[in-house]
Amino acid sequence: MIGKLAKSVREYKLPSILSVVFVALEVVLEVLLPFICSDLINFIQGITTQGVDGTVTTLHQFTILSVPTGIELTSLDGGIGYIFAYAGILIVMAALSLTCGLLSGMFCARASAGFAKNLRKDLYYKIQDFSFENIDSFSTSSLVTRLTTDVTNVQNAYMMIIRIAVRSPLMFIAALVMAFTKNWFLALIFLAAALVLLGAMALIPKRAMPIFNRVFRKYDKMNLRIQENVHAARAVKAFVREDYEIQKFDDAATDVRKDFTKAETLLALTNPTVYFIMFVLILTTCTLCTVFIVKGQTDPNFHVIGGTLNLGDLSALVQYAIMILMSMIMLVMVLVMIVMAAESARRIVKVLGTESTLESPVNGIKEVADGSIEFDHVDFSYAGDDEKCALKDADIKIKSGETIGILGGTGSSKTTLVQLIPRLYDVTEGSVRVGGVDVREYDLESLRKNIAMVLQKNVLFSGTIKENIRWGKQDATDEEIVAACKLAQADEFISQMPDGYDTYIEQGGTNVSGGQRQRLCIARALIANPKIIIFDDSTSAVDTKTDALIRKAMAESLPDATKIVIAQRVSSFEDADRIIVMDGGRISAVGTHDELMQSSVIYREAYEIQNKKSDDGEGKNAIA
């Protein structure tokens, strides 16, 4: 898992390393400051004072705190200069420590933000290569959560790892070593307290981990509620179901809140536990040091356990005790963040480690000879189970340039059949050939560039009309865009817009009607000049006259392209070369309109329902 995530660091390795280096320098400078301060305090203890009455007194331990006002500190051997030298050293070290801390923070921020950028990029690119089957297995809402919340959690964990996770153990070791140089007995007490604290803290993340595992799955459900409501906002309002949907979202959000509350309650125990142990340790240190120092001054026979002690050593040991325990606090913070990020990391790595079920073969064929299509006894199952086939024994040959209509009831696998042509899914049994070659032998990009699909669910992207049309051909000229829109019968309504072809399309095409959206999607497909063009019920929102004009324009402008039209309206393909009738996942019948009127009950019933005759015998079209 770590190896896969580390690949996303890439060009941000140097900032990551520099962050670690400057953190180490900062720690070294910080632990040296108390040591030098202790020497300075010890030196001051030996400085003499001359009172206003001319008497000279040597300062001993603690007497420096009670020097009367007006006494001027002097040194018999130039001690004032020595103090200023110490002060200068301390100021320089503090400035260097601050500089190292700032540089470490800067490089850490750059590295973590860059890592998150690369991780999102890698995830997004990976998802772009996914087949429909892969996307279905993860769900859209789950992929969105992984690209947003999960990446943010991993970014925060990485930021803490390259800075605080480095600083904490270094600070702990360095401060402990310096404490041993002052008094090994008290240093052992510090070590024991730190180990007790670490043991207590280790239990909390262990209990919190299962909760975080659950909460991210609930995040996916909550995001699914949001996605459904945003996409289906019109339906929600049309059926006055706002209260119902609000309650569904509230239930999902409440589940997330409950789990997070449990986890955060456990994690909230860390700070009071740490601070309690820290204050007890500081109190113990001060008490022992005071006893040792006073006894050492008053009792010549008393030997301090662990070495000698004086006022400067007391100051240093207190600071080292704080450093040791603060390093433990920071380490616990890192552990908590890692616990939260571990599940996110696993979810991200699962996406990065998933290979698309559809891969281009090595040295795949890049040229599609023509638009001929052959289904050779094809079975297909979305579940990969031969017993649950959505498509069964599909066997048909389509010549290049033919116009093929496909009719069938809901769930008859019309869309499934055509999705196998550009290899959006792989067949379970049999084969699909395009231009005489099995689609599995083609380079995927080359195959799909020669097959244009106008999907059942029309999708436009935020941007101008020109930008949307150029999805079909990136280098299309303005003249080619206009020509494609004229074929799709879209030029008329585009010309009436204030900005014409530069009109901005809102996300999902919400500022155009359903029929306009369909015609723009048709224009986007036509501009690619494909060898095969598939219309999956893509003229359902246009009137019969416009539908007829689109079919006529296609027949005239794309005579060599194979055209496959799925529609519920028989008039959309009544004049097709052949019509395929689907029923229950099988090809029920194939023929021309006249042939099917004689041989197919399904086709004849559909035609008669849509073309009821009046009493005087005149035909009257009805839109299904």
The strands making up the biggest β-sheet line up spatially as: 9-12-13-6-14-15
Main sheet: strands, sense, barrel: 6 strands, mixed
- DSSP helix fraction: 55-70%
The value of Rg in angstroms is: 38 Å
Secondary-structure-based class equals alpha/beta
Descriptive report:
The longest helix is centred in the first third of the chain and has 51 residues, at 79-129. Strand 1 (48-50) and strand 2 form a beta hairpin. The protein is built from 20 helices and 15 strands. The chain has a six-stranded mixed β-sheet with strand order 9-12-13-6-14-15. The protein has helices at residues 2-6, 13-45, 79-129, 132-138, 140-162, 164-182, 184-231, 233-238, 242-268, 270-298, 311-352, 414-419, 444-449, 465-469, 478-487, 491-495, 514-526, 544-557, 593-599, 601-610; strands at 48-50, 56-58, 72-73, 373-380, 391-398, 403-408, 429-434, 437-438, 451-454, 463-464, 504-505, 532-536, 562-566, 578-583, 586-591. It is α/β, with parallel strands linked by helices and 624 residues long.
How would you summarize what this structure contains?
The chain has 624 residues and is α/β, with parallel strands linked by helices. The chain has 20 helices and 15 strands. The strands form four sheets. It has a six-stranded mixed β-sheet with strand order 9-12-13-6-14-15. A four-stranded antiparallel β-sheet has the order 5-4-7-8, with no helix packed on it.
